[in-house]
Amino acid sequence: MTGQPIIIMDRVSKRFGETVLAVDNMSLTINEGDFVTFLGPSGCGKSTALKVISGLLPVTSGTITITPPTGETEQDLGFVFQDPTLMPWATAYQNVFLPLKLAGIKPDQAGPRVTEALKEVGLSKFADAYPRELSGGMKMRVSIARALVTRPRILLMDEPFAALDEMTRSKLNNDVTQLAKEHNLTVIFVTHSVFESVYLSTRVMIMAARPGRLAAEMSLETPWPRTEDWRTSAAFSAEAHRISEALKRTLDAEDIDH
Amino acid sequence: MPKTLTTETLPESAPEQSAPLNTVPLRRARRERILSFVMPVVMLCAAIGFWEFQVWYHEIPKYLIPAPSVIAQTLVTDGPSLMASAWFTVKLTFFSLLLAIIGGVILGALFALSRPVELSLFPFAVILQVTPVIAIAPLILIYVDSTFAALLICAWIVAFFPILSNTVIGLRSADHNLRDLFTLYNATPWQRLRYLLVPSALPYFMAALKVAGGLSLIGAVVAEFVAGAAGQNTGLASRIIESSFRSEIPRMFAALVLVSLLGIAIFLLTNWASRKVLGHWHESELQRES
Asked: Domain B64-284, CATH 1.10.3720.10 — does that match?
């Protein structure tokens, strides 16, 4: 399922000011088609790591190599924030159109792609709705459509579903994995939910705090994308238990440190 | 635990349901709308009626308190000359407001874009704002040849500051994640300004416009008072002073009514503009259903 390396992080560190070391010496190779989750407690630098990969924050030291895109794409990286981050003055359609508009694509050329992106997230009927008229889950779908409209290879998601209710969250989990498979996306997904990381990903990166660093890597061999049945299976529980134990060991080690 | 059935649906499917035909809230909203229009009108008419009655009943002479009917009569007989003055004040007010918008927005944009510019020029803006215009007006009238230009400067000084300060705050208020998004998609500075900063600043700007609209009228009236009744072209405030010198109390009231009407017109206009610009998305102008 996974292909060539697409993101290579080599001894990446990110320091804020003199004292805060948000990401410490992180080395990681992510392959095409991987669905990677960064799992860890609050303040372990997982969001910072994501922003560094996206280029929104410069690295303090180390290198990040992203293999150049081969296909037609306006923006190789899609980013989904923790909040839907929609422009409240613009309709769902206009929000999804934004990345193409910024890339200088004319509305008539962009039209079919925006419509397609909205259709993919199941919001065809809500193209003309303003964000305030949409539920939390729907807003997040618009945000996902916006990230996908540029046909990126890589999708970065920063705790996108943390604020949603359990049912909406499960549904969006399924939809995201489905979209990732259809578009052959490489996804990095930040979460603090063990269950979400187990359900979604092929690789789980457990991160530890102070300084933020990669504590353990765990692979999940269960065929991907997973189905709703698997969520309630004994195998799922076993995997969740395994990841939880690893996370617990990381947290315990931290407690001893301090 | 027994399962309980609730009428709630999942958020995802809620908007797709067709709303049941319940006209009660609609009717209530309509009644509310009518009431909100009728009540003030009724109260205003009642107050005017009470005034008229008191003047008639106590036989108060019109050089003390003129009855509303006398004021209305004066508005008709002095109509042409009062209208000319009103037109002068309208021009002065709207012109100064326009200049306040242009100056406030341009300077606000400069402040928001450049910290050094803000630090070096903001004290001047504050000095202009905190010094009462009535204290500066005589100087301006001495230094500026054209009376209209002098009056314009006075009114502008008063109206300008809210636009400036709110434009600065507004341009800085854009959501930081949206800023990141624009960075991620390599937005040019122009795109960032047009598609992100300006829309983010609009609610602040519209709030300032409502304040500045009223202030520009106050500025115009105050400046006219200081300028006095001199000159050929004079505004409503000058007519009020002139009438007070001649003890023509009904005409004072008539001019006052026109000033008030102008103020109300500005208030309605700026509110309408704000609803037009923000009504479809911003909390401050959304119509609530309940």
From this structure: yes
Residue reference for tokens 């070391």: A21
- Which chain B residues are Cβ-neighbours of A90 within 8 angstroms? 199, 281
pLDDT tens for each residue of A73-110: 778 899 999 999 999 999 999 999 999 999 999 999 99
Query: Cβ separation of A89 and B202 shorter than 8 Å?
Result: yes
Task: Grade residue B231 by pLDDT with cuts at 50, 70 and 90.
Answer: low
> Model-level pTM?
0.82
Calpha distance B243→B258 (Å, rounded): 14
**In chain A, which ranges are E strands?**
5-16, 20-31, 35-39, 61-66, 77-80, 154-158, 186-191, 203-208, 213-219
Q: Give yes or no for a contact between B259 and B83, defined as CB atoms under 8 angstroms apart.
A: no
- Please tell me whether residues A206 and A240 are part of one structural domain: yes
Task: Check B15 against A133: CB less than 8 A apart.
Answer: yes
pLDDT surpasses 90 at B37: no
Chain A residue nearest residue B203, CA to CA: A89
Ramachandran region of residue A104, left (φ > 0), alpha (ψ -120 to 50) or beta? Answer: left
Are both A137 and A190 inside the same structural domain?
no
DSSP A121: T
User: Range of A211's domain?
Assistant: 5-69+154-257
Mutation site, A75, A76, A80, A87, interface B, largest B CB count within 10 A: A87
Of B14, B177, B281, the CB nearest to A89: B281
CB-CB neighbours of B224 under 10 Å: 27
Residue A233 CA to residue A239 CA, distance in Å, equals 10
Cβ distance of B15 and A134 shorter than 8 Å:
yes
Residue B19 sits at the chain A interface (C-beta within 8 Å): no
Instruction: Tell me the ipTM for this assembly.
Output: 0.91
Q: Tell me if A85 and B282 make a contact (CB, 8 A cut-off).
A: no
- If asked whether residues A141 and A199 sit together in one domain, one would say no
- Note the pLDDT tens digit of each residue in B174-229: 999 999 999 999 999 889 999 999 999 999 999 999 999 999 999 999 888 888 75
CA–CA separation, A89 and A95 (whole Å):
9
B residues 169-188 closer than 8 Å to A (CB): 175, 177-178, 180-187
